[in-house]
């Protein structure tokens, strides 16, 4: 299996397609109708993996994968994942996994130090009051933060106040915000508009006004979330100003930096992360841009008390002996994998300096693509290039033309992009993030974009010409008929 993995990774640049040419249901007819009664050989299983399963794979680790934010792979993290699987340790408490608990505290402190996070987020060996925990995904982290917010907000309040809680974020925030509100049962959800005039960043005046209006209506501000690096455009909300706008309202303030949080390792990017000392919780995903195989979401809280109040329900047989930091009380499930081992292997085997160089490399590649877009008068940048993301589109064309451009680009399968909408405008996204992506792959992507633009603009021009000719012909026929009459 290790040899097969190494062969696959080495052959990624030569894969004929990044995204598969399959349709829904492609696997149904190829699969046996029921599980085998007798054992089958590893060779037979892997033959089916090659012939039946691999044709449906999207090659996320391909150097020409530019679609979603990355989900990086590295050999150190993969080796750690293998070792974690072999150990099979479920470290829900210190007693159940002393090393997994204590290594997680150490790794969360290492990451906090590397990212320049506030001292309040440090684990301090479990002494608190704050600390870090590894969640599976940002979606889990936001649910956990919202549960802590609700617990703090409702402490000593009548049960009926649950119906008055309000949560706030930008309309550019990830959908996990709204889903968390659905799960937790927050009925009043404010998606505050962010405008292109501010590069789609939420403005503190909008948050302050919304909170004031809700308080005046007898509602209770419970939770506010800012984003550093939104999914659509990598917009960066002004955390310090938003935290100040929410101050005094009682709302828990969370910051989601799922993709962009890795950039905090770079001192020159720290201006995007100003104000974290004023927030209650913060999270980002090393499994996106930091070479840590999925899943691994780092979450920190300044005070773990409300979080434990919301999530701890400890029966006698699970009570810890000698250590109060049981991570089962910091998350939704009881069971948890030994995820901190991935961070440990990664940081030890690569080192912070090499990781910083890798992040800077991706930012430089995105900047090179953005420069190519800006130099072509047919195109426009739809948002400032931030981190590894470039948002762009053909200038002054109907949305179907940009949609046709994306379809043309993805049809051949040699690269993979997706789109978003900014102020209702169809916008293409190119996200640099695969571990093996180099300048040659970005240059090839731009060449493909420029060539596809030639095709779709020519087709659009011909179609427009036919429409104009048809309209002119209809007008002439109508005029002639009227004259003859």
UniProtKB/TrEMBL annotation:
Cofactor: pyridoxal 5'-phosphate
Cellular component terms (Gene Ontology): cytoplasm
N6-(pyridoxal phosphate)lysine: residues bearing it: 288
Pfam families: Pyridoxal_deC
Entry similarity comment: Belongs to the group II decarboxylase family.
PANTHER family: GROUP II PYRIDOXAL-5-PHOSPHATE DECARBOXYLASE, MIP05841P
Name of the protein described by the UniProt record: Aromatic-L-amino-acid decarboxylase
One Gene Ontology molecular-function label: pyridoxal phosphate binding
Swiss-Prot/TrEMBL keywords: Decarboxylase, Lyase, Pyridoxal phosphate
Single GO BP term: amino acid metabolic process
């Amino acid at each position: 299996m290790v040899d097969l993995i190494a062969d696959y990774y080495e052959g990624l640049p030569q894969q004929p397609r990044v995204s598969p040419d399959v349709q829904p249901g492609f696997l149904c007819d190829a699969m046996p109708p029921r599980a085998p009664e007798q054992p089958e050989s590893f060779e037979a299983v892997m033959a089916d993996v090659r012939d039946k399963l691999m044709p449906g794979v999207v090659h996320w680790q391909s150097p020409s994968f530019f679609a979603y934010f990355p989900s990086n792979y590295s050999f150190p993290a993969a080796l750690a994942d293998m070792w974690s699987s072999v150990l099979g340790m479920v470290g829900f408490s210190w007693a159940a996994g002393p090393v997994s608990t204590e290594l997680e505290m150490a790794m969360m402190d290492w990451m906090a130090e590397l990212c320049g996070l506030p001292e309040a987020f440090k684990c301090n060996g479990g002494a608190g009051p704050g600390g870090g925990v590894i969640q599976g995904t940002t979606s889990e982290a936001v649910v956990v933060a919202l549960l802590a917010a609700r617990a703090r907000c409702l402490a000593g309040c009548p049960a009926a106040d649950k119906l008055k809680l309000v949560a706030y974020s930008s309309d550019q925030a990830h959908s996990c915000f709204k889903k968390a509100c659905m799960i937790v049962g927050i009925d009043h959800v404010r998606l505050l508009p962010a405008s292109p005039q501010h590069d789609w960043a939420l403005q503190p005046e909008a948050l302050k006004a919304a909170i004031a209006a809700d308080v005046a209506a007898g509602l209770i501000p419970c939770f506010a979330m800012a984003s550093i690096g939104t999914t659509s455009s990598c917009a960066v909300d002004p955390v310090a100003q938003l935290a100040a706008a929410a101050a005094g309202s009682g709302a828990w303030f969370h910051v989601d930096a799922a993709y962009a949080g890795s950039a905090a390792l770079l001192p020159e990017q720290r201006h995007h992360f100003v104000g974290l000392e004023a927030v209650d919780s913060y999270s980002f995903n090393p499994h996106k841009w930091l070479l840590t195989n999925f899943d691994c979401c780092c979450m920190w809280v300044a005070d773990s008390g409300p979080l434990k109040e919301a999530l701890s329900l400890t029966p006698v047989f699970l009570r810890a002996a000698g250590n109060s930091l049981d991570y089962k009380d910091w998350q939704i499930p009881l069971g948890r994998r030994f995820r901190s081992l991935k961070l440990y292997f990664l940081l030890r085997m690569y080192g912070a300096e090499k990781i910083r160089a890798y992040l800077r490399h991706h930012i430089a590649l995105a900047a090179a693509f953005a420069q190519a877009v800006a130099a072509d008068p047919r195109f426009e940048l739809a948002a400032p290039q931030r981190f590894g993301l470039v948002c762009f589109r053909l200038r002054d064309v109907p949305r179907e033309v940009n949609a046709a451009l994306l379809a043309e680009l993805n049809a051949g399968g040699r690269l993979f992009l997706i789109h978003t909408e900014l102020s209702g405008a169809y916008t293409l996204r190119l996200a640099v993030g695969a571990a093996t992506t180099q300048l040659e792959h970005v240059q090839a992507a731009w060449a493909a974009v420029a060539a596809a633009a030639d095709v779709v603009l020519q087709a659009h021009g011909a179609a427009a010409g036919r429409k104009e000719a048809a309209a002119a012909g209809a007008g002439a026929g109508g005029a002639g008929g009227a004259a003859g009459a």
